[in-house]
Design a protein that fits this description.
Helix content: 55-70%
Structural class: mainly alpha
Largest sheet: 2 strands, antiparallel
Distance between the termini: 24 Å
Number of helices: 30
Number of strands: 6
Shape: elongated
Strand content: under 5%
Number of domains: 3
Radius of gyration: 41 Å
């Protein structure tokens, strides 16, 4: 006769007392089961052979409402998740037992459904074969009864969701898994951004800049969401404060970028161009002095270049200064057995540019002729230094390196003058806080582009990178402007960690009924570099239900294996 758990509980016995009583009767190791993490209620259900609902102090109604299901699932979810976790842990720590359990279930199902497919040893009527078959079919029946109890009818399904939400979800995943790959993924939200906006978005994510999403999308709807988020009246005015605090961090980050601007683009420190020029001039003088102490030398590579230029069809189109130097070199070689003085070689290096007009020079043979002439000079000077010992090459090499650097240094000076220009910043007269103005920076950079183009002619890619940097920063202009406006209102920012500044309320607050702090959460999600709402509004959220289902199904296989392994252990 089955033990009446409900009556025992009515008499005042606890779950633990009843479970211990039944365990003694059945010879069950209750201490070991408790060590595995099973609760008294779970053990009592197992030992009595009846679900908790049959003897619970609070009877569960025969027909469950949606509220009953949701409420019960919420209460039972932590315990059920823990139960699934225990099964998974058991599977991982006892893989042999788990695999045996799964094999038993699978073999039992085959024995019942497809007896003809079983091997001979399983069909034979020997005691061993019959025992094996009984074991397999018993395992299958156990799990069959388990699922029949759980999902046999709509009320059982609802009860399963209420009592075992985690396990039920996994069971559903197991059924749906075979067709999961056919479930199409989809994209939620997002907008196709122009190329420049996409580049700015990537830049903001990389540099962790909290910029409002609507400046990238230009969406009126998203602009309205942001405005509403910052205008909801709650006690803390959280949305407004969070948004402006993040804008303050944005401004600080950009000013920090300014301080590291030249270094990040591989440019020298400002104010070094003059010193570099003077040092290079000194090195050229050292070269001339060392070369002047030896007779004229043969410079075969230089001679070949000079003769080729002088005899080209484009010679007449070269600047007068360039033509004069080339004619002088040709005449000198003709009068001196093909040899040149160090002074003429220096003139070819320093003055053959024709006052900086390289375009006509490079027309010759449709190639960068000046660059090749420099290479020829360097090669011949190295040969002369090796042959004579005169220190002409080393000084020339160092001077040329400095000459190239001085152009970059000049570009650094030009950029630094823009970066420190007072028009690029606004200083709050009340707080002393400085605000970077990206739009003004971009405007002044465009005004100096022709000068920078000459100064960075050796590395034009740097100018393009700087222009891209300005384009990216321009997307921060709206947020910093709003911060400026907020700071202009009397108030204090000490609570926000800004020191002595202040953010005040800028807009009149509409009346909306929302939970306190909800606006702050929304504001953070909108503005944070990797905020969920920002991603949703700009890039969109990629949803792949098929992958999620298949992943859950794999977990459920482990869970079933863990449960079966535990059952086997209990029976031993």
């Amino acid at each position: 006769m089955a033990f009446d758990v409900a009556a025992a509980k009515k008499e005042g016995y606890s779950d633990a007392e009843i479970a211990e009583h039944l365990a003694k009767q059945k010879g069950f190791d209750i201490a070991g089961a408790r060590k595995e993490g099973y609760s008294d209620a779970e053990l009592l259900s197992h030992l009595s052979g009846s679900p908790v609902s049959d003897w619970s102090a609070q009877a569960i109604p025969d027909k469950l409402s949606l509220g009953d299901v949701i409420g019960g699932a919420t209460l039972n979810a932590p315990k059920d998740v823990w139960g699934v976790a225990k099964s998974l842990f058991k599977t991982v720590t006892h893989p042999g037992e788990a695999m045996e359990g799964l094999s038993n279930v699978g073999a039992g199902a085959i024995a019942k459904l497809f007896p003809a497919s079983l091997p001979d040893w399983a069909v034979k009527k020997t005691p061993e074969a019959l025992a094996a078959r009984e074991k397999f079919e018993g395992s299958a029946e156990q799990f069959g009864e388990h699922y029949k109890k759980r999902y046999g009818g709509w009320e059982n399904i609802k009860r399963s969701v209420m009592e075992h939400p985690a396990e039920t979800g996994l069971d559903i995943a197991t059924v749906v898994a075979p067709v999961a790959k056919r479930i199409p993924g989809f994209k939620l939200g997002g907008k196709e951004l122009p190329a420049e906006a996409q580049a700015a978005m990537k830049f903001a994510e990389k540099e962790k800049l909290p910029i409002s999403p609507d400046v990238f999308t230009q969406s009126k709807f998203q602009r309205g969401v942001r405005w509403l988020t910052e205008s909801i009246p709650v006690a803390s005015e959280g949305g407004n404060l969070v948004a402006n605090k993040m804008r303050g961090k944005l401004n600080e980050k950009i000013i920090s970028m300014r301080d590291n601007f030249l270094k990040d683009f591989g440019l020298p420190a400002p104010g070094t161009a003059k010193a570099m020029k003077e040092q290079a001039t000194g090195l050229y003088k050292e070269m001339l002095q060392a070369g002047g102490e030896i007779p004229s030398q043969a410079y075969p590579n230089v001679a070949k270049m000079v003769e080729g230029i002088a005899n080209s069809a484009d010679f007449k189109s070269l600047p007068t200064q360039t033509k004069d130097i080339l004619v002088k070199a040709v005449k000198e070689m003709a009068e001196n057995e093909g040899k040149l003085s160090i002074e003429t070689v220096n003139d070819l290096s320093a003055k053959a540019w024709g006052g900086g007009n390289v375009r006509s020079f490079n027309k010759i043979q449709n190639q960068p002729t000046m660059g090749k002439l420099k290479e020829a000079i360097s090669a011949d000077l190295q040969a002369v230094e090796t042959a004579t010992g005169a220190k002409v090459y080393e000084a020339y090499k160092q001077a040329e390196t400095l000459s190239k650097s001085k152009h970059s240094a000049a570009a650094a000076d030009t950029l630094w003058n823009i970066l420190k220009n007072r028009d690029v910043y606004y200083q709050n007269p009340n707080t002393g806080t400085y605000y970077f103005r990206p739009a003004k920076f971009k405007e002044m950079l465009a005004q100096k582009e022709s000068i920078l183009s000459k100064q960075l002619k050796a590395s034009p890619e740097k100018l393009e990178q700087i222009k891209q940097f300005a384009d990216n920063l321009s997307y921060a202009a709206m947020d910093i402007a709003k911060l400026e406006k907020a700071q202009s209102v009397t108030g204090t920012m000490k609570s926000l960690g800004f020191g002595g500044g202040g953010i005040g309320v800028i807009v009149a607050k509409p009346i909306l009924a929302v939970p306190a702090g909800f606006d702050a959460i929304l504001a953070h999600s909108l503005m944070a570099p990797k905020g969920v709402l920002k991603k949703w509004f700009t890039e969109g959220m990629n949803i792949a239900p098929g992958k999620a289902v298949k992943k859950a199904a794999k977990i459920n296989v482990l869970q079933i294996g863990g449960r079966e392994a535990i059952r086997q252990e209990e029976e031993q």
